[in-house]
Amino acid sequence: MTSKEYILQRVKQNKPEQTLLPDVPDFERLDVDWVEHFKETLVFVGGQAIELESDVEVNLRIQELFPDMKVIASDIPSVEVANFDLNGTTDPHLLKDIDLIVIRGEFGVAENAAVWVPASSLSHRVLPFITQHAVIVLDKSQLVWNMHQAYKRLDIDKANGFGVFISGPSKTADIEQSLVIGAHGSRSLVVFLVNK
Amino acid sequence: MKNDAQYTNHSGKAAAFVQDEARTDWHDGALWFVRYKRDIQIKKVPEWETMRELASQIKANVLANLDKYLIQFEENALKNGVQVHWAKDAREHNEIVLNILKNKGVKKLVKSKSMLTEECHLNPFLIENGIEVVDTDLGERIVQLRDEAPSHIVLPAIHLKKEDVGATFHKYLGSEEGAKDPKYLTEVARGHLREKFLAADAALTGVNFAVAETGGITVCTNEGNADLGAHLAPVHIASMGMEKLIPRQSDLGLFLRLLARNATGQPITSFSSHFFKPNVGQELHFVIVDNGRSEQLGRADFRKSLYCIRCGACMNTCPVYRRSGGHSYGYTVPGPIGSILSPGVDLKKYSSLPFASTLCGSCSDVCPVKIDIHHQLYKWRQIIAQENELPLSKKISMKVTGFLFSHPSLYRFAGKTARTMLPLMPRFLVYNKLNAWGIHREVPVAPKQSFREWYIEQQKKGANKE
Amino acid sequence: MKVGFFVPCYIDQFYPQVAVATLQLLEKLGCEVCYPLNQTCCGQPMANSGCEKDSIKTAGLFVENFKEFDYIVGPAPSCVGFVREHYDILEQTPDVVHVRTHIFDIAEFLIDILKIKKLDARFPHKVGLHTSCHGQRGMRMAQSSEINGPAFSKQKQLLEMVDGLELIDLDRTDECCGFGGTFSVFEEAVSAKMGRDRVADHERHGAEVITGGDTSCLMHLEGTIRRQNKNIKVIHLVEILNGTTLS
User: Fold this and answer.
1) Who is most buried in B92, B176, B234, B322, counting CB within 10 A?
2) Residue C227 sits in which domain range?
3) Do C181 and C91 fall within a single domain?
4) Is residue B310 part of a domain?
5) Interface predicted TM-score (ipTM) of this complex, two decimals
6) B253–A168: do the CB atoms touch at under 8 Å?
């Protein structure tokens, strides 16, 4: 008997009586300004939200906010300040010296300031984690209220095998409960909320 | 290495912990603060109690259909190009992991947090077999360097002060002697672990949730360490206890809303990574582990402990855990949930744990999946007593008490004797090593009359008046 | 209605004033109260130690003593809660079921059955309420701080009817005092520490008196206070409701 067979047999023998699988409602809230809530929560989790009037402002804002970034990488073609050839790099280890990335978020979640970034938006899965700093460009109209709506919105088949909800920069409180922003992943996160 | 005693004496270890009252206050305050942050977050979610109820019902359905969901999960994972393995027990899990690593010539492994692999004692096994294993969660790396077990499932190093971390990093990572600034120390760890990520031949992660409907897994971190490991290495192994399954992709919405709020008082962790297919040129392995879970599944009174999503809130809220520390439980998972899981693993060894509680019920009220933790603690006590694993003094005193209370005149006699003797006894006779109550407390003042005696006297007075 | 008066063993032997106050209060409010002379204990000490079996005879005796009454009332949420929840160890005869479904803690009885709206009592002091766990999370006599739900507390409701009484806030509104039955002896160090911490919380907020519904908690807190030579009085809630004064 294989271990799989053994385990399944034990489970069949020992499992409890059938119970119903409940439906989970949306819990959508329309009494809250989603954009404002997203911005406030992003600050709460250590990030920053900046509203932009249009895509055209992206390059300017990056230069303003990050004048000292040396190596900038982006999977968004219109980001002119990018100087790292992501598509020409196959080995993800070579991304280790990137200072700043500028990537696209597919949609945002107002209740927790999370942004869904599927692998289909990334040349490399490791990009959001290996960079020192990150900017996510998000269409302001692409917000849902909470995670229930997020999973309705999310399309796994289009994700290319992986996706991540990113809420703020990396952090840890493992040393005496002191919050330190910037653990192993990005040290900072800015979300550009663009009016499209 | 860490949990090798025949019998874990929680009370003795706890007494030693509490000796340092200042440090106990600090530990208690740190964990209470996490509970406090949780309360603030959950009070912002009006539907919170409904969410707990739904999550509990979903987990009930998972257990009732576990075999079907396991099969569905494997089918979908295989379709996605994932390799799926099944391990009956800890030994098999460790061997499976080792085999995968040996097949790929792996010398260096990076690991993100996985309580399951702690349970299986994976690290020492791999190290014995020539693999360098680096725990990359900051708290876990700290305790790994110190050769200690984690003392909390979410906050592994909560028992350590920043000076302790500074000393450890100075000794093993060459940082400044006497350093204690958390920012500086985190930066040291960042640099050190970044090298490890870049040099790793394989990465092993835990699994927060496995979704039957999609065959995918979700891993939640604040540090980004699971992803830095998984996306750089050519091999990603994800180990999961088989109870981590949830039925539908949409159920992740509910569980992710519950998990971080309850665990650390955040609306969600920084990263919630969803793995479906291996990357191009990468191998992705899931190892599904039983290791006593199918046994627990068969225990009607205790199977609800398998609902656990490992948020750690029961530890934060437990007044006993806060004042005794995770190490006094001697089990991979400490605190209230550990005290209802561990007797199922080894009743004799962990027989003191269900008694390391006042049955206050705070854990049950805080549990996001409504495990009836304090009821299970009570029930484990009955089993421990039946199996004769109670300390002799307790066994005897309970038999005597039971006898006394079922014989009213004997009970009254004992009570009167106590009340008469107490005021007559010199202090040293009342307060000594035999009287545990009296170490830090005064015994009650003995009244002249019991209530019954007063009542009877009143009745007589009333009768006399007539 | 005939009320059977249940007096927990440690109140009978060591805190008779609590039972006296309960009896007097019930009679003042018009109840016909009868005290079965042959009662001993509800059986909780044995059962909480894992020895449910050793509590069966005691539980049987309890049912015998109280089966004839419309209501059974006692000043002890933990004991009352035990009868309600754990008398499933007995065969569920009609008598057992009746006792389990008609037993009340005094605070519950006053609010839910007698539905009193006012009291004739004055206690012009700063009072800290210790919300004991069995009453709160066991019998849901008050909301728990862990739960996202509306605030309520039967004991608080009653104390608010007492003239001049000032209820203080606490840092931790419902943390366990650390008594826990045999826990107080077998895990003495943590139990005593928990007791000290509860007392310190009340002290920080200026409590002159600590009150509560469970004498076991109060005994533990009072023992701690007396050992520390602190000047805080510990008085059962029912004594305050019955009109006791500090002198």
Assistant:
1) B322
2) 126-241
3) no
4) yes
5) 0.98
6) no
All structural domains of chain A: 31-194 (3.40.50.10420)
What is the layout of strands, in order, in the sheet containing C233-236? C166-167, C126-130, C209-212, C233-236
**Is the residue at C12 inside a domain?**
yes
Tens digits of per-residue pLDDT, B33-55? 999 999 999 999 999 999 999 99
pLDDT tens, B378-434? 999 999 998 887 888 888 888 888 888 888 888 888 888 888 888 888 888 888 877
Task: For chains C and B, tell me whether 3 or more CB atom pairs sit within 8 A of each other.
Answer: yes
Cβ neighbours of residue A33 closer than 8 Å, sequence gap 6 or more: none
Interface residue A16 vs chain B (CB under 8 A): yes
Contacts of C among chains (3+ CB pairs under 8 A) = B
Query: pLDDT per residue over B4-21, tens digit each?
Result: 557 899 999 999 999 999
Residue B359: give its domain's CATH number: 1.10.1060
Chain B (58-117) residues lying within 8 Å, Cβ to Cβ, of chain A: 58, 60-61, 63-67, 70-71, 74, 80, 86-88, 92
CB atoms under 10 Å from CB of B210, counted, come to 25
Best residue of A2, A9, A14 to probe chain B, by most B CBs closer than 10 Å: A14
Burial class (CB in 10 A: 0-12, 13-18, 19+), C246: exposed
Beta partners for A100? A72, A133
Is there a contact between C39 and C67 (Cβ–Cβ < 8 Å)? no
Predicted confidence band of residue A190 (pLDDT cuts 50, 70, 90)? very high
| Same structural domain, C130 and C226 | yes
The model carries a pTM of 0.95
CA C155 to chain B, closest CA, distance in angstroms equals 18
Residue C119 in domain: no
Min Cα separation A101/chain B (Å): 15
Please indicate if any CB of chain A lies within 8 Å of the CB of B41.
Answer: no
Could you say which of A7, A114, A184 has the minimum Cβ distance to residue B225? A184
Structural domains of chain B, count: 3
Q: Which residues of B touch C60 (CB under 8 A)?
A: 406
Asked if residues C51 and B402 have their Cβ atoms less than 8 Å apart, the reply is: yes
Q: Do C186 and B411 touch (CB under 8 A)?
A: no
B46 burial (CB, 10 Å; 0-12 / 13-18 / 19+) is exposed
Contacts C136 to B, Cβ<8 Å: 361
State residue B240 phi and psi, 5-degree precision.
-140, 140
User: Tell me, what CATH number does C206's domain have?
Assistant: 3.40.50
Look at the block and give the residue holding tokens 């059974």: C72
Q: Which residues from chain C sit within 8 angstroms of residue B458, using beta carbons? A: none
